[in-house]
Amino acid sequence: MIGRRPQVALALTLTAVLAAAAACQNQERQESGHPAPPAPAARGFTLVASGDVLPHDSVIDRAAYDAGASGFDFRPMLFGVEPVVSHADLALCHMETVYGADGAYSGYPSFKSPPQIARGLAAIGYDGCSTASNHALDDGAPGIRRTLDAMDEAGLEHAGTARNAAEADSVTILRAGPAKVAHLSYTYDTNGIPLPTGQPWAVHLIDTDRMIADARAARRAGADVVVVSVHWGTEWQDAPDRMQLTLAKRLTASATNGRPDIDLILGTHAHIPQAYEKVNGTWVIYGMGDQIAGEMYNNRGARDPRGNESTIGRFTFAPPARPGERWQVTKAEFIPQLYDLDAGRVVDVNRAISRGAELEGVRDRIRDVVLSRGAAEDGLVMGE
């Protein structure tokens, strides 16, 4: 599958004419003693990724209020991060829940979200979402089908769940400037709900060997960059757990002919921001936190504001010096976010601070966790 931002290709005949004209101009310059202009530098791309979209009942109610007369409108809720999302060459989200039908929508513990959320995500610039999560089977196979149908209708690509075996075996490839980016997605579990009878492919579960095989298949399918979204970790724990650390090391150590099989790992599930870290030369976000969620209570049953804090990861990739080598991350950034429960809005914390909002404590808490495993020494900075 190819994503929403196709690059316009010139017709072969026109390309040939332009190339011939440029060659003639260069020859004339050389004959007249003027050097030919330098070739333009190969263009890279920027990728942004954000955390769990987890609409509780209060979030659904807010989208209904914002829609006015009828329906649900999630665009106002998300508009605060539109400048960051829409200006990236490729933007990825994590859709943790499935969609309900005919007004049968619900939050925790069995999530069935309004399908209009797909339109809201696409409207502010997201190109695709990971969908493998512990809530992927909250409404069985029909929930997966409705979710992916709604995403298709909104022009939002998806990876991690499937309506049929062929879709499960396909590679989701999206355009990011001049590059083709494969997006893969896996989850640690489905809250104990068994996979639908006869549909073992419905949700991609974490399996190291399978994940590496899928990454290699994506490369063979033409992917310049392979991004893996992983729903993992221990809820409400700032530090990555043993499984996260072990899996990150194994995935980033995998290589084919000296080229890493995976170029970026995006983590979700823990409900709170977790560290960024460069592992075996590859950036890993252990947890981005909840981009959208209602009032959150931690494992002790206490209201925990960290459950409404998150980050956007932004990575600038440069093309390789030679064909077949790795696209390199030349700039790595994190952008602190907050879901304002009272306003029902996602807030770019840095932008809000610049307008005088009292959010320095939120920013500092997120920054300290994100940098807790030495990412600053590897060049990670807080973005605007």
UniProtKB/TrEMBL annotation:
<dbReference type="InterPro" id="IPR029052">
    <property type="entry name" value="Metallo-depent_PP-like"/>
</dbReference>
<keyword id="KW-0732">Signal</keyword>
<comment type="similarity">
    <text>Belongs to the CapA family.</text>
</comment>
<dbReference type="InterPro" id="IPR019079">
    <property type="entry name" value="Capsule_synth_CapA"/>
</dbReference>
<dbReference type="InterPro" id="IPR052169">
    <property type="entry name" value="CW_Biosynth-Accessory"/>
</dbReference>
<feature type="domain" description="Capsule synthesis protein CapA">
    <location>
        <begin position="46"/>
        <end position="295"/>
    </location>
</feature>
<feature type="signal peptide">
    <location>
        <begin position="1"/>
        <end position="21"/>
    </location>
</feature>
<dbReference type="Pfam" id="PF09587">
    <property type="entry name" value="PGA_cap"/>
</dbReference>
<protein>
    <recommendedName>
        <fullName>Capsule synthesis protein CapA domain-containing protein</fullName>
    </recommendedName>
</protein>
